[in-house]
Amino acid sequence: MSIDKSLKKGGGLTRTRNVLTRPERLALLQEDERWLPAQGVFNLPKTKFRRLAPGQSGPKRPS
């Protein structure tokens, strides 16, 4: 059974997401050395993240 055209979303996610998925959060926390795999995936610290539009540059992360 197919979905009616009026119920389909054109383009999927058109707006930028303001929430990270768990793997994205873990990667960001590991990069900042705030999380280790031995600690588990519950009670993770909060992360601030904002996607920028293409062409914009955000704050530089120290490497």
Could you characterize the architecture of this molecule?
It is built from 1 helix and no strands. The protein has one helix at 22-31. It is flat, with a radius of gyration of 17 Å. 0% of the residues are buried. It has 63 residues and is mostly helical. The mean pLDDT is 79. The termini are far apart.
Task: Give the arrangement of secondary structure elements.
Blueprint: H1 22-31
List the secondary-structure elements in sequence, H or E: H
Structural class: mainly alpha
Number of strands: 0
Helix content: 10-25%
Radius of gyration: 17 Å
Summarize the structure.
The protein has 63 residues and is mostly helical.
Key structural traits:
mainly alpha, 63 residues
